[in-house]
Amino acid sequence: MPTRPPKFRPEAWLATLALIAICVISLGNVIVRYATDASFAFTEEFSVFLLVLLTFAGAAVAARHNQHIRIELIEHYLPSQARKVVFVLQWLAGVIVLGITTWYGAKFAWEEYQWESLSPGLGLPNWIYVIWLPLMSLAIIIRMTQNLIDRLRGKKDPEVIHES
Question: What is the value of pTM for the model shown?
Answer without folding.
Answer: 0.85
